[in-house]
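Much of our argument rests on the idea that a fold can be written as discrete symbols. In the encoding step, the backbone of a single protein was reduced to a row of integers, each denoting a local shape. This step matters because it turns folding into a mapping between discrete strings. For completeness, the protein is quoted in full, as a sequence line and a line of structure tokens:
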Amino acid sequence: MSNETERVRLLIIGSGPAGYTAAIYAARADLKPVLYQGLQPGGQLTTTTEVENFPGYPDGTMGPEMMEHFRKQAERFGADIRFGHATDVDFSGAVHKITIDGSKVVDAEAVIIATGASAKWLGLESEKRLNGFGVSACATCDGYFFRKQDVAIVGAGDTAAEEATYLAKLCNKVYMIVRRDEMRASKAMQHRVMNTPNIEILWNTVTLEILGDKTVSGVKVKNTKTAEEKILKVEGFFVAIGHEPNTGIFKGQLDLDSNGYIKTKPGTTYTNIPGVFAAGDVQDHVYRQAVTAAGTGCMAAIDAERWLALKQDG
């Protein structure tokens, strides 16, 4: 194990819209930020195909291409962007210690955490293969591509109910696949689903396989009570069984909510540790959009810049 240590003014952990936007602002403020891209350089957007709802792209753009633009813009202003991911942190002292790839230690005066959240998946091979080609974990991102088509959504919580009703406004028919004989969603959300005529709820139903060669053409489901199997002819398959914030290494160091998201002081990106800020989906389980992540990335860079200036003056 290496004992290599490096001292930096500002370290950014994560490279989605939040991390890259923080790097753009911090680099322009001459904070000389160092950004480690993490296990998924570019974040969740690199697993999507077309992005149509980010301002400034009138004809839409591809997710990976957009993240490439973010990265190049940050580098243009001098951000030091590197491969590698944080494997351990120690926020107990005046200097924050972050271990990269289990060996290198970076001492940082300030840290911006933008490690994001990962969608929970069913774990099917066909789901992985068709991800971005009819399979999605974000109805508000991708529902528009399935206008006037038939789709299926799996999940039983508030998010699934909300996304099902959102899809119902755009799509011809929405099958809602629910594993048990009841939903976990709030009563208000359940009423909305029940009162939407083009949503059909399939109770006690599990997904066996997503069908299709290059794009989704159907989904094979099974009723767990009757053992009956059937194929739903759909062009889109949405997974809404929750997200997992990438906060494992921060447990015991930062205040997290009951779902593991980093708590930030309302209206800011400040965490409970001075000099540690959080931006993007790692602290936002409500909106989870590229544009809101970018917005909090900007906030984190400004918060960090002001905090470092006060620290220097003090």
